[in-house]
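Handout, page 2. Input:
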Amino acid sequence: MTFAHLPALAITVPLVAAPLAVLVRRSAPAWAIATAACAFSFFAAILLAAEVAAHGAVSYPLGSWAPPWGIEYRIDAFSAFVLVLVSGMATVVAPYAWRSVAAELPRDRIYLFYALYCLSVAGLLGMTITGDAFNVFVFMEIASLSSYVLIALGRDRRALLAAFQYLVLGTIGATFFVIGVGLLYLMTGTLNLADMAARLQDVRGTRPVLAALAFITVGVSLKLALFPLHFWLPNAYAYAPSVVTAFLAATATKVSVYVLMRFYFGVFGVRLVTGTLPMAEILLGLSLIAIFTASLVALWQQDLKRLFAYSSVAQIGYITLGVSMASRDGLTAAVVHLFNHGVTKGALFLLLGGVALRAGRATLQSVQGLGRRMPITSLGIVIAGLSLIGIPGTAGFVSKWYLVLGALEQGHWWLAGFVVLTSLIAVAYVWRFVEAAYLAEPGPGAPEPGETPLAMLVPAWILVLACVGFGLQTSFTVDSAQRAAALLLGGGP
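Output:
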C-alpha cells in the first residue's frame, strides 16, 4: 500500500483536530481545521477503498502486537464503503457549517461546535474501521457523547430535552452493547472480531452466546432508531442545529446499521441469527411496522424537519428489511440503501437549513410560495424528495429495486408489493411540500425573496446531484454493496 498508515491517520487526524479547534478559540481557524481534517479523512477513505477493491482487505495492527493479540484496524469491502460515506458527508457538510452555524449558534460557542464535530466524525470512522469489539464500544461512546452536545446546541430550548432523551436512551443502548461484548469475551477469550467469529464455532448454541446476541441487538437497535426504540430520533433531528441534523441523519444511524450487520453476519454467523433464534422474523416484523407507521405519522407533521425525521425511521425500516432477508439481494439492498438514504437525507436537511435561515423555521406554512421565492432551494428539495420516494433515475430507486428483487428471490410477492405500496405514502408527504411551495400563496411566515446563501447552497446541491448521479450510474454503489453482501454471507474477500 502506498500510504501504510492511512487506516490510523483517517481517525487520528479528526481526533487531533478537535483539541486544536479548542486551542485556537476562534471560529474561522476552528472551521478551517475541521474542514481540512474531514477532507483528509475523505481522501484517505477513497485511497483505502481503491486498495481494497484492487488487492483485498487491509489489516493495520496497532503497536507491536499482531492480531488477534493486539488491536487491529481492518478495512474490507463493507467497511471501506461506509468509510467513504461518513468521511464524504463530513467533508460536504463542513463548508456548509461556516454560514449555518454562524446564524444558529452564539459566537462564543462556534469553535466548540467544530471541536465536537471532529470528535463525532472520528468516533463514527473508528466504529467503522476497528476490528476490535471493545474498540467499537469506545468509538461509539466518542461519537455519542459529542452528538449529545451537538444536539443540545440548538437554539430551541427543546433541544436540551431532545439531547437528554438521546443521552438516556443512548447510554442504555451502549450498556446493552458492552454487556453483549463482555459475554462474547467470556465465551471466546478474545475481542478481535475475526478471531471471535472463529472461536464462536465451538460454543455457538450456548446460552451466554444467545444472550450476547440479544443484548447486542437491543443495544445497537437503540442507536440506529429501530422501531419501537426510535423515540429519541424525531426530537433530536427537529431541534438540533440544521448542520447537525444533516450530518447525523446521513451518518450516525447508518454506522449503527453497519455495526449490527457486522456482528450478525461477521461474528455470530447467518446460521445462528436466522436459524437458532428467530432474529430474521423479529427484524422483519419490526421493519414492516416501522415503515408503515412512521410513514403515516410523517403525513401529519407540520414541521418539515420533524416530518423527514419520521421518514428516516421508515427508511431505516427499509434497511433492516433487507438485513432480515439474509440473502444476496436483500443485503445488497440494505447496503445500497444505507448509502443512498444517507446522501438523500443529507441533501434534504441541508436544504431545509437554508429555509430555516430565511424563514426562521422550516414548516409547511413558512414554505408556502417557496417555489417562487427560493426556486433553487425548492427544486433541490423536490429532487431529493423524489429520491426518497424511489422514482426511477434517482438513488432511492436503486435501493427499492434490490429490495423487491430480494423479496421475489424468496418468493414473497406480498413483501415486494408492500415495498411498492408504502413508497406511495412517501409520495403523499413529499407532495405536501410540493403543494405548499408551488401551489399555495405565501403566508405570513414565508421567507423574504432571496435564495439560500451560496456557501450553504453549493454543498446541498452537491448531494442533490449525487441523488441523481447514483441513480443513473450505479457501478460504485451497487458493485460495492454486492461485494459487501458476498463478504457478509461468507463468499467474499
